[in-house]
Known about the structure:
By secondary structure, chain A is an alpha+beta fold. Helix content of chain A is 46%, strand content 23%. Chain A is built from twelve helices and 13 strands. In chain A, a hairpin with a 3-residue loop joins strand 12 (350-355) and strand 13 (359-367). Helices cover 65% and strands 4% of the residues of chain B. Chain B has helices spanning 7-20, 24-36, 45-60, 66-81, and strands spanning 3-4, 89-90. The longest helix of chain B has 16 residues, at 45-60.
Amino acid sequence: MAKTETKDNNSLTSKTTNKLFIDALFSSIGDGAIATDEFSRIVRINSVGLSILGLKEEEVVGKWYPSIVKSVGEDGQEVKLMERLITKAYITGKPVTGRAYYLHKDGHKIPVSVTASPILLKGRPIGAINLYRDITQEYEIDRMKSEFISLASHQLRTPLSSIKTYSHMLLEGYMGKINRDQRFALKSVIDASDRMNQLTDTLLNITRIESGSMTISKKVVDLKKLAKKVVSEQSIDAETKNIAVKLRLQDKPAVANTDPFITKEIMSNLVSNALKYTPPLGRVTISIKTDKDRVVCCVSDTGIGIPKQSQEKIFNKFFRAPNVLARDTTGTGLGLYLIKSLADRINIPIWFESITGKGSKFYFSLPACMPKNTNKTTKESGKSL
Amino acid sequence: MVEKQNNIYWRLVDITSHYLGPAAERFIDRQVQNHLNKDPKKITQKDVEKLMDWIRGAVSLLTDNENLVEDYIGELKKLSKDKISRGTDRK
């Protein structure tokens, strides 16, 4: 009898210790932590979590999670419940990490880095745990960095323009005859300033996208005309590199409702990328095809291709595949990141196929629209594309 | 066109649509693909049982109404135990 009592007491002590240990563990987490039950009622929150949200424990525990932890977008609009990370974690059954804005009790937005995971007990979900960290400082540093890059890029454009203009004038002999060595030197200066111009354009576009200041203005765009314009603009570069650029256009109209500037940037960057990674005597082809309600654009090349193990990371910022690094050390790894960011900005899919040593095909598709509107809207916009 | 479909799948979607409206089919597809890793159209009554806890958790994040969630889960429990003819015709 006494033995059983001792056993029970030990078990009780063990349970209490266990509970105390879990309490201590939960409150010691350096990030905000909220646990919910299977009905999304908050069962536990630590002090860091309370402080980030500006709430007290009694205002939180027992309440329905979405009514307490409110997530808003950049524009302050509440994020749909289906889109929230915790819902995604429940739907996928896996931890989901991302960034969000939570609403503080006083109504201000707090940028947070979140990891939401379902809590599993013997394989069955019994709730969820949400870990979040206030990243206001990181956001501020990021914003300052973007502002600096934007300012620096703008400031670089003015001297670059002078360098280019005077170099061209010298090359054309406006300031006296030049010899072969001087011609070579001037051409190198012009090439370098072209590259720098391209880089400043890329940096400016990236900072505009990342800061959210790139506005979208959708119009009816004739993609066949747009492709011809892109090819004509890049023809000198292609000729210099001895690469054939071909346009493959179908007779059917290829008209889409899209932002003309962003679409042209995507196409131009894809073509210039293809030219960059295609060896002399190679071929770059731009094809436009209308398929049901989408216009599909494809830029293919006979270039070096993307190794299979690098394909997953190819749109990452600063990423450069090993076969690119081996042949060209001047790139930045921003080209495809910019293209993907631009595509995301206008909400269109972009994808690719690639075989190392044979070439790559990059596709993007846009919502097609009826061709009869082309003239009207183009007239209204005052631009011919 | 008449084609053979999985009765369980369509009944599950039908029940779900009373609670989630037009999102039902997509919701069920995602649940089946993510948690059971199988073709949603091939689910069985046993699978419905396996999914119930996940569905309860996900729907509870979409509504504050516990009664509604339990009502929904009750319907799913019935479905998982019902005698159902397999491979009925569906238009």
